[in-house]
Amino acid sequence: MNRLIRFAVDHPIWTIAATLVLAAGLFWPMTNLQTETDFREFLKDDDPIIVLMDEAEERYGRSWGIMVMLFNEDGIFNQTTLQKIEQMTDQFEAIPGIKTISTPLNSQTIVGTETALSVRKAAPGGATPETPEEMEIFRSRLMADENLIGGVVSESGQAALINLELEVGADEYGITPDVVAIVDANRGNNDEFYIYGDAYYDSIMAEEMEGDTSLLFPLALLVMVFLLFASFMTIRGILIPVAIVLLSVVVAMGAMSLFGMPMTMMSFIAPIMLLAIGIADAIHVLNRYNEEVTRFGDKLDPKNGLSKKERKAVKREVILNTMQEMKGPVVMTSLTTATGFLSLLAAYLVPQQHLGIVVAVGVVAAMVFSLVLIPAVLALLKRPRVRNINKGLRPLTRVLLAFERTINRHRRLVLVLAVIILAVMAVGVPNLRVETSNEEFLGKDHEAIKILDFVGEYFSGEVSVMVEFDTGVRDGLKDPEVLNAMLELEEFLLANGVNKTFSLTTLVRQMNQKFNADDPAFYAIPDQRSIISQLLLLFTFQGGDLGDMALGDFSAGTVTGMYQMGSSANVSRLAELVQEYLDEMFPADSDLQVRMVGTTVLMNRMFTQMTQSQMAGLVTTIAAVALLVMLFMGSVVAGLIAAIPLILTVTFSMGIMAYTGQPLDIMTLMVSVVAVGIGVDYSIHFISRFRSEYRKDQKAERALQATIQTTGRGITYNALTVALGFFILIFASFKGIRTFGWQIALTMGVSALSAISIIPAILVQWKPKFLSRAAWERSGASKKNVSN
Amino acid sequence: MIRKCVALGMTLAALALIGFGTFAQTADEILDWVDAEADALAEGSMVSIIRFDNVYGDGTTGSNLFGSLAIPDHSLIYFIEPADVAGTIFLTIDSEDDDEDARLWLYLPFIGIAKELVSEEERGGSFAGSALSYSDLGDREGRADYDAVLLGEEDVIIGDVTRTAYVIESTAKPDADVDNPRSILWIDKEFLIMLKLESYNDLGNLDSTMDVLVLGEFEGKLTAHEMLAENHSDGSTTTITILEQRRPDSEIAADTFLPDNLSELDPALWGFDQE
What we know:
The complex is a heterodimer. By secondary structure, chain A is an alpha+beta fold. Chain A folds into four domains: about 220 residues, Multidrug efflux transporter AcrB transmembrane domain (Multidrug efflux transporter AcrB transmembrane fold, Up-down Bundle), CATH 1.20.1640; about 140 residues, Alpha-Beta Plaits; about 240 residues, Multidrug efflux transporter AcrB transmembrane fold, CATH 1.20.1640; about 130 residues, no CATH class. Helices cover about 65% and strands about 10% of the residues of chain A. Chain A starts with a helix and ends with a helix. Chain B is mostly beta strands. Chain B contains two helices and 13 strands; from the N terminus they run H-H-E-E-E-E-E-E-E-E-E-E-E-E-E. In chain B, helix 1 packs across helix 2. Chain B has a single domain, classed as outer membrane lipoprotein receptor (LolB), chain A, CATH 2.50.20.10. The two termini of chain B are about 25 Å apart.
């Protein structure tokens, strides 16, 4: 590292050119980042639930389509609204790639009489009824069909659904803009429209992520510029750190693209996070450089009589001394921060893992640029204009010194207070609830949530619970006992919050009734297998498609229930209820194998696994960073002391959430890990400097005063920078990101405060032995190397 | 859907044609001859037994065995297997008026009466879960919606036999409401029977195919004995095997095709009582 730093100082042009080439090389892939909003992609391909879902989809198929929903307060049974549906149907038909269009007008109904079975469109010819009498016939025919209510028309008659089934191989992303254009052209006349489809959802998310990035990144940059100006009051003090973080962002995002990681609703904030985190190293290095320049100020002044060559040699030594002093802390803090973020690799969701990797790469890049690019740039620049911090105390320093005196005088009280706060917050932690619903992340006013709410309110629900019945034998589903077992499960689901169920049982009962002259007495499962077989044959002759209700050989099939998600707790409740029911009714050793597959079980597993993995990851992170500190400082005690503010910060963060009723969600679950990754820097910087000062004269009070004046100020500035950087996220479109932003900001404040209060209280009170020992690297030897 | 079954019977008959070796000038002329031969074959009574071996899109399999009786404008399909639908009969009576749709009845043995199936329009989907669809069956009634062009000639290999075929491309007319806007047929040059069919959806992707796998003879003419239908949308396939095709000793009585008489149909009389 020393050689590299010397090379950078001696060959600044080459160093800067090489850096720019690297940045340019990674800029191009960065521009090709893909966006991913499919929740399934948030889990690994080999996750048991994904394997189960893939297997179910392979067996029962996956429907592809776009839904256009219409709402009219006064009901859809009026000519204006129905003509609009008819007209839109014609327009949709003209879009290549749309296979079939189902609407309330053209949906098929089956009418049974003594002599015939008639299959007809709900509205003759699929055309809008023209007279009140025709309208009434249409309305009664539509509303009498159990399959259509909740399917193409709401039970209230106020909402209609136009389902666009796509051709296999159709480009949903190419078709969706055409669909949106048609919908937009038909808005008005008290008809509200909602579009529901993967591509549309993706487009909303991608648009908002893009909008957020365009707004938040410049905003965060502006805040950084302001803080840097307040800190350094020089142009170079602004431009150098900004250049470092921008290059780090390019490296991180370029690497993200090269690693094949898509941009997700979590990782899109990585550049903003890097702005806040990556700037710290540059600030610390420049601060230290200014300190060194102040010390050697006279020699660098052209008026002091030294030749240009001599002054250049002095400046070289100043830069090398700065880097020698800062190399250790910068490497140590960067690696611990990167370790903190890399602990997200233990997270359950893939985007969280990606975020961890990307930020870790960015942090390491910022470290390298700070250690190599800054000395190169400084070597090219003239002596900076630096205010001597010893000439009068600045307001922040005065506050910090007052703070230091308080800590010094009342260190036992500080420690007791810390223990009390820790205890109070820890008591609240068990009450933390986990809520990972879409609504919690996006916010209830988000367009996607409004669409989901609409689906839930008028069309049975947006979430499905699917149970597979596998008899293991051909035509096994045609056994009346099996169908009755499926029917009982459906009744159980309907009694437990499910709005509508779909299975063979409805088909068989309907066909039985229709074939028996529509006699309601025949709306039942026949007690003979042959009758069931013939009714199902009749269904297929009528053009019916079994879809995911049964396999082609009827050996297995599904019961699907639709419901409104509400909360993740609701999903878990239903999943557990259904599992209990299945365990009781269908023992594992029975011939009939019944298991839950599909979205509900996926979500339930995700909720459970996310929390467990995050908690495990948090413990691992604290242990890992503590271990790193132990290694860097060559002291177990130092590692343990460094971990204390982290534990307090994490407990405080969780306690505040618990007491304010804020749930843990997919973003806030990461707050603690991020807080540890960044917060450990404060502990390291403080302990390092304190030890360095203490070793000079073994006087703890003086060491504390010196540490607070220098590192304490740096920590305060850094915490302020990071907190403000993250606080910018409160302007994000997604509620989860907003909460994440202010919680990190709060946590950073607590983390910094803990580092400059609890650590000095412990160090001054007990003066641990490691303070007197040198670290692994002997500073004297290092100095000698630099001078060489 | 029911009409598809009828169309299947008609197609099988059409495929049994032996062409008359006349040199064809245009695609329409070739298709006219195919239609004319199908009509000629439909004259008189016909008894057939056909097996469907299905591989569904989900990978599971199933088989159906049907018996078919046909006289001009009347046909019925009797389900022999699987056992739990045995005895189900599907009756079609064509209208004398070409503009009117055929009338369809379904007889389910469990209820003991035939019900007429009335539909406002042609329905989509597959035939009894098979990979066959209306257009796959090569029904020529929709020819008016298409423009046919003779693309040239190609060799088609069927088993160990190589046949030379006309290649005809049918493209839907601008205002036609059809499922497959484009299809390509391979018609045997010598015998004028269809050897192969490819149908494409409106995105230009292959939607379904039909291939003759085994050729045979009927009444001294070349005919298809085994065919493979593939639905490329859902991945299902159906192998159609004509197990038996014969003219009965005497013409089939017209009252066999009366809906009220379906319950009295004696399968043994037509050889439909086999396993």
